């Protein structure tokens, strides 16, 4: 599917060699954007760019490294002549180390905060002056439903995503008058390599039965929301977190078990 919803937009997506970021980059390029695909996996980034075409460029970045993020933003500005959209998409935590509070590995807490929250601060700071030069821009942060509600495990991940949700509001508040909008997308479970590697098939089936919709999300389900937030169609929206979770967090906590009783 191709259109022109993002014609003339110059976009950077981190973590775009795989999963949701890759889908978002492809959908954005299909809507006319010039997209820089930045990923720790340089080969996969180059391959994604080649497959997407439309002038997409693939480069290596490590979002944990400030100099690497600075090189990423400079490359986008040099190649595209400026920057309009930054997607701070990389995130996650190691589920074997990010456990409940009593068993959480504190080094993993620090790494998770850096990977999800500090990287978003650093990349956004580097991007903002270029957005001001362009007369405005859109920052899109990928968070998670884990940042909205508590869970039994992965407390560093949830806390880091919650930090990014609040940071999204601060960026929106502080730079709205300069024409910069900042919003977040909060996916529930999405069928990506990360999900497949970290969760057993029965757990994924369980999540599906907990959702209000009888679905597990696809990368494109989130990618289309990112297209909207990158486009001028969302020009009156800032500081918001768009939740795309099959209705998981819209329900009363007891709805899923009630549904199972009704089904029996
Ligand atoms: N998949 C889901 O179910 C789900 C749900 C909620 C939120 N999310 C969020 O979506 C984002 C990514 O998820 P995905 O499903 O697209 O994952 P994915 O594993 O498919 O892709 C992640 C990409 O990030 C890259 N990456 C990892 N560390 C990096 C680093 N330090 N610097 C640069 N790139 C790095 C990887 O090489 C990979 O290409 C994360 O922020 C995650 O928290 C995913």
TrEMBL record:
Q: Which GO terms describe its molecular function?
A: oxidoreductase activity
Domain of life, per lineage: Bacteria
Keyword check for Ligase: no
Membrane-spanning segments? none
Provide the alphabetized UniProt keywords: Oxidoreductase
Q: Per its UniProt record, what Pfam families does this chain match?
A: adh_short_C2
InterPro entries noted in UniProt: NAD(P)-bd_dom_sf (IPR036291), SDR_DHRS6-like (IPR051122), SDR_fam (IPR002347)
Q: Does the keyword Oxidoreductase apply?
A: yes
- Protein family membership: Belongs to the short-chain dehydrogenases/reductases (SDR) family.
- PANTHER family documented for this protein: DIHYDROANTICAPSIN 7-DEHYDROGENASE
What's the name of the protein? 7-alpha-hydroxysteroid dehydrogenase
Organism of origin = Mycolicibacterium confluentis
From the broadest rank down, the organism's phylogenetic lineage runs: Bacteria, Bacillati, Actinomycetota, Actinomycetes, Mycobacteriales
């Amino acid at each position: 599917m191709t259109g022109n919803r993002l014609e003339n937009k110059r976009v950077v997506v981190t973590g775009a060699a795989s999963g949701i970021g890759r889908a978002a980059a492809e959908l954005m390029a299909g809507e006319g954007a010039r997209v820089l695909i930045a990923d720790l996996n340089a080969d996969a980034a180059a391959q994604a760019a080649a497959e997407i075409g439309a002038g997409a460029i693939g480069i290596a970045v490590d979002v944990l490294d400030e100099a690497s993020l600075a090189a990423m933003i400079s490359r986008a500005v040099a190649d595209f002549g400026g920057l309009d959209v930054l997607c701070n998409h990389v995130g996650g935590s190691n589920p074997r180390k990010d456990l409940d509070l009593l068993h959480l590995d504190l080094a993993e807490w620090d790494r998770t905060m850096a990977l999800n929250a500090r990287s978003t601060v650093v990349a956004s700071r580097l991007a903002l002056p270029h957005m001001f030069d362009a007369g405005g821009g859109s920052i899109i942060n990928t968070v998670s439903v884990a940042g909205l509600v508590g869970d039994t495990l992965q407390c560093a991940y949830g806390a880091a995503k919650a930090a990014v949700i609040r940071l999204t509001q601060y960026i929106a508040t502080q730079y709205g008058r300069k024409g910069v909008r900042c919003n977040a997308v909060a996916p529930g479970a999405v069928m990506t390599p990360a999900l497949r590697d970290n969760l057993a098939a029965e757990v994924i089936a369980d999540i599906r039965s907990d959702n209000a919709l009888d679905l597990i999300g696809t990368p494109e389900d989130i990618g289309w929301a990112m297209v909207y937030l990158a486009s001028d169609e969302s020009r009156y929206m800032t500081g918001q977190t768009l939740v795309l979770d099959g209705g998981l967090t819209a329900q009363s906590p007891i709805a899923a078990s009630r549904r199972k009783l009704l089904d029996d």
